[in-house]
Amino acid sequence: MSAMTFGKAINTGLRKAMEQDPKVVLMGEDIGRLGGVFRITDGLQKDFGPHRVIDTPLAESGIMGTAIGMAYRGYRPVVEIQFDGFVYPAFDQIVAQMAKLHYRTRGMVKVPITLRLPFGGGIGSPEHHSESPEAYFAHTAGLRVVAPSNPQDAFTMIQEAIASDDPVVFLEPKRRYHDKGDVDESLAPGAALDMGSARVAVEGSDVTLVAYGPMVKTCLDAAVAASDEGVSVEVIDLRSLSPVDYGPLVGSVKKTGRLVVAHEASRTLGLGAELAAEITERCFYHLEHAPVRVTGFDVPYPPSKLEFHHLPDLDRILDGVDRALGRTNSLSGTEEEA
Amino acid sequence: MLTGDDGAPVQLLSPDGQRRPHERYDRLLADLDSDDSNALLALYEDMIVTRRIDAEGTALQRQGQLALWPPFLGQEAAQVGSAHAINRDDFIFASYREIAVAYVRGIALPDLMKQWRGTQNAGWNPFESNMAPTQVVIGAQPLHAVGYAMGVQFDGAESAVITYFGDGATSQGDVNESMVFAASFQAPVVFFCQNNHWAISEPVGIQAHVPIGLRAPGFGIPSVRVDGNDILACLAVTREALEHARAGHGPSYIEAVTYRMGAHTTADDPTRYRDANELEDWKGRDPIARFEAYLTGSGILDDAGRSQVAEKADAVAAAIREATIHMPDPEPEELFEHVYAGPHAVLERQRDHFERYRAGFAEHSNHAPHAALTEGGH
């Protein structure tokens, strides 16, 4: 067990995967000598060479498309797209090509590609550097979408994503890259929990609060603050966005009767909408209140001086918890449904 | 190193079927020119048979047996000629129109039709044939070819990759990105552009202001324009390009100047956008007529040979028809198969619900699903 940053945990996981399987190759812009703009691939080209850690031309669709060709040839490409907002030029290769190839060929072509995507806001970047595109990918059949929230998960989940025979969109919460946490490097991928599983991060009895990626830490803070006010919040770290592991959610909501979902992404048709609908279907007679969403607004990602109004913070989450509890909240006295 | 041949497409057969000697390319046809008339007849047979497959596909679509068919009438020389240059361990990434390439590759006849019948999205095992399932999204596949070729290179293998696309695809970012990657990594890949002059209703002039083959040198990729209706020229330039790739000299580019004499697909009506005189002009350059004139003039093909090949074409067409009209619909459960390589809990729940739903009809077999009364019947 050693303390390491989130970023270093991914780096260590990548190194381990590359050592274990010579077919694992890294592809992306600036990932070689520079080690990536976030330094996640730091030192890997030096140790594995330019054919294992490939500095590609500056062409996102080109990176994804050639990775698919590499997969045809038996490689396991790990692609880094530099920022969330730059993934859109590669959209066809991700959702129409990578996601569908296994289905189209009735399983004859495996597409074990891991798409590493630093996502989310909170780092004061210019536009196109802070997006939350997860719903596009979670909406696409054939893709797995996961988002670790802490260094230990980052370390094991990246190895699982690479080992998966399915294409995995691996969302890295970039504002947590420098957060430190304990990482047990001897922990084999999937030994504690596989990447498809949700995790009860904190147990509680009054409200179920669900989040993933960068929002998990904020929700854990909110749970502490709520407990100071006498409210017991159970925080669930979703970890996998597709498929969602509903077991722990259903179990929790049956216990608490109340669901709050928090994410940075815009509200309309975001993952929160799906979770609210599914939990309502599965837990209708256990619910004491309609599921509540605390999300980014339906606006383009704002300039950085406004982003902390856009991103759900501890107080907005607590406000959502109050709503789920029917307590006085920011919408009290209004027609919430209007 | 390939060069651009002063802009005039390489031609080894004149339009009236005379063999033209060529300093650079004769070497590549030495086996055919010596005495191997069997190889020449094989080319001829594949042209005749694939034209017949094309006609049969169109007819089957008109009869409601296929959902759609993309004719390649007029492109037999480009497809058959180039395909004959490809070695067994070379890999092919083609578009949906390269049906003659797939046939030459040895794809089983029913497998050619599954995609168009709608029983499968892709008809064959890419690793048995070393040919990827054909691509519908315009210009997406050259990137896959380049990635595969990079893998060939990293593996130290001595094979090559060829990718087919049309003139419309050359406007796509992916095709241009694929050339950047291919040149930067010197990937062993051949870009084979069939300039058939029309991207549905858009003439090639909307895609390119200069001959398409001239673009590749700007990426650092040697390029050649070839008469796409001259099967010997198509075979020779493709052999050269694949040799170039296998020898570790990197990518190259072929623009085969040909013409789509039919519609874009059976859903298209070219009379709305295409001048009839243009079509007549290109009919005069028919790739099969040209090759047939050459073979007849050389004494390689006679009436007996012609009828033998026609019989083969009849047999293939009959086999395709038989396979198509008796092709079973997939089982409903196949809907859910192969979406993922591993288990996916959410999808498995949906599959489970669907199976229960269907089982409900089985329990009450006197009640057919309403949908069957209005939809889905043939």
Could you please describe the fold and organization of this structure?
The complex is a heterodimer of chains A (338) and B (378). By secondary structure, chain A is of the alpha/beta class. Chain A has 12 helices and 14 strands. In chain A, helix 1 runs parallel beside helix 7, helix 3 runs parallel beside helix 4 and helix 8 packs across helix 12. The mean pLDDT of chain A is 97. Chain B has 378 residues and is an alpha/beta fold. In chain B, 46% of the residues lie in helices and 8% in strands. A 5-stranded parallel β-sheet of chain B has the order 1-2-3-7-6, sandwiched between helices. In chain B, strands 4-5 form a two-stranded antiparallel ribbon. The longest helix of chain B is centred in the first third of the chain and has 26 residues. Chains A and B meet through helix 3, helix 4 and helix 5 of A and helix 7, helix 8 and helix 14 of B. Chain A: Its EC number is 1.2.4.-. Chain A: Pfam families: Transket_pyr, Transketolase_C. Chain A: Its cofactor is thiamine diphosphate. Chain A: One of its GO terms (molecular function) is magnesium ion binding.
Give me a quick take on this structure.
By secondary structure, chain A is an alpha/beta fold. In chain A, 35% of the residues lie in helices and 20% in strands. Chain A has twelve helices and 14 strands.
